[in-house]
Design goal:
Elements (H helix, E strand, L loop, with lengths): L2 H5 L4 H36 L3 H29 L1 H19 L5 H29 L2 H32 L2 H14 L2 H11 L6 H6 L3 H29 L11 H19 L2 H14 L4 H25 L5 H25 L4 H16 L1 H11 L3 H56 L8 H10 L2
Length: 456
């Protein structure tokens, strides 16, 4: 059956609406992880932090992300994607308030840890939900909405941080401004919880827990009775072949799927993207840019991040996942070489900003969204939550390592060599994609599963 006949009856408006609500979890993810970029310099001064403790202040949230990633999949499998995402909204809300009022670094770290639990769980549950409701012809673009929401969240908080730091002088920002930066997340957190209460549960999750009629009603609303009947039959057939045991993840074809998903997640972070997203103003200050100009340039980075995510949305289902990844990782490598050269020669002009923007653009059009898409679609239904828990745990572990070590690397080997290290990682990513990542464009989730089964 061709793609057009499979999706000719799709209720695109309804599908887009519920996908956007689920993707809003990505907005909170991006907002909450990147808020520290504007606050970190003031936190460092407020708590008088060394380089390693500065890294800890920025990366403590990522410990929670790792645990949230491991917990999110099993919780989503047990209680459903919808209820679990509503729980995440509550954690985002509480954490944002707690992060705004600490009197010690330890209190701040615990509050950020709580937010990390929400980020880690949402980083699994939102793309799973979208992948499980989307027809194969649109799945890449719809899951890309999640990455788009992440980068819009990042841009939004960069802009909010810019406005807050302009409200007062350096002393005010050191004492109070950074607190408002973290508190600003409360409103979107509450909104996400309310909106998630209005969307349906994942039909594939209903099938998994033995309630096919509920799944059929949702699938009919999305794609009509004929497509619903076909999808129910395909899902039932796939579920009969699965036992859903942890051991299945490490054997045969599924073991290879897990290796691909996990390495793709790790390499996405070793690109150094969050050295820019978490320390953006500090990177520009290191190059000799003034405080306000550093914040403005960071907003520009966020805008480019959003703009080039649209490239991924427009082309991921046309060109395929591999083509975007190969283009993106090769450009990342060259951009890091350029940024390192600027730091080595003392340039802090448009060439440095251009190099950083080229890197961010390359990441935003490829490694950023495509790593989520591939991880959301290469695993079978019964194992998807568990498999993504492992992949995304490793993603957050890699993110933690980058975030924790960036200030120390800059102090130890200088910014030029630090960015050259990230360039080397991007080159290794290119080779990995070339040799190991399969193309999943235009295939149903069940067809992708059959591909791995043939290799078992």
């Amino acid at each position: 059956m061709n793609d057009n006949s499979r999706s000719s009856g799709t209720n695109v408006g309804y599908l887009l609406l519920i996908s956007l609500v689920a993707a809003f979890g990505g907005f909170l993810f991006g907002y909450d992880t990147a808020v520290v970029s504007g606050a970190i310099g003031f936190l460092k001064a407020h708590f008088q932090l060394s380089a390693d403790l500065t890294g800890w202040a920025a990366s403590s949230v990522l410990i929670g992300c790792m645990m949230g990633a491991m917990m999110g999949g099993p919780i989503g499998d047990r209680f459903g994607r919808k209820a679990s995402l509503m729980l995440c909204a509550g954690l985002f809300f509480v954490s944002s308030l707690a992060s705004a009022v600490p009197t010690t670094l330890s209190q701040f770290a615990w509050a950020r840890f709580m937010g990390g639990l929400a980020i880690g769980a949402a980083s699994i549950l939102s793309p799973i939900y979208i992948a499980e409701i989307a027809p194969e012809r649109m799945r890449g673009r719809l899951v890309s909405l999640y990455q788009l929401a992440i980068v819009i969240g990042i841009l939004a908080v960069f802009f909010v941080n810019l406005q807050i730091q302009r409200y007062g002088d350096t002393q005010w920002n050191t004492q109070t401004g950074w607190r408002w930066m973290f508190a600003s997340l409360t409103l979107p957190s509450a909104l996400f919880g309310l909106l998630m209460g209005l969307v349906p549960e994942s039909p594939r999750w209903w099938m998994k827990v033995g309630k096919p009629e509920k799944a059929r009603r949702i699938l009919e609303k999305i794609g009509g009775p004929a497509n619903a009947a076909r999808e129910v039959a395909e899902i039932e057939s796939a579920l009969r072949l699965e036992q859903g045991r942890w051991s299945e993840l490490f054997a045969g074809g599924y073991g290879r799927a897990l290796l691909v998903g996990a390495l793709l997640a790790i390499f996405s972070q070793f690109s150094g993207i969050n050295a820019i997203m978490y320390y953006g103003p500090e990177v520009f200050k290191t190059a000799g840019v003034g405080q306000d100009a550093a914040f403005v340039q960071t907003v520009t980075v966020g805008a480019i991040n959003v703009l080039f995510t649209f490239v991924a949305i427009g082309f991921v289902d046309r060109w395929g996942r591999r083509a975007l990844l190969l283009i993106g990782t090769s450009v990342q490598t060259l951009a890091h070489a350029m940024v390192g050269w600027c730091f080595a020669t003392g340039r802090n002009d448009a060439v440095l900003l251009g190099g950083i923007l080229i890197f961010v653009a390359a990441f935003a059009m490829a490694m950023g969204p495509v790593s989520w898409i591939v991880n959301a679609e290469i695993f079978p239904t019964k194992l998807r939550g568990r498999a993504m828990a492992i992949s995304i745990f490793l993603l957050w572990l890699a993110c933690y390592l980058v975030s924790q070590t960036f200030p120390m690397l800059v102090e130890a080997i200088g910014p030029a060599r630090t960015f050259w290290v990230y360039g080397g990682c991007s080159l290794v990513s290119f080779v990995f994609v070339l040799l190991m990542v399969p193309e999943t464009k235009g295939k149903t989730l069940e067809e992708i599963q059959a591909h791995w089964n043939r290799g078992r």
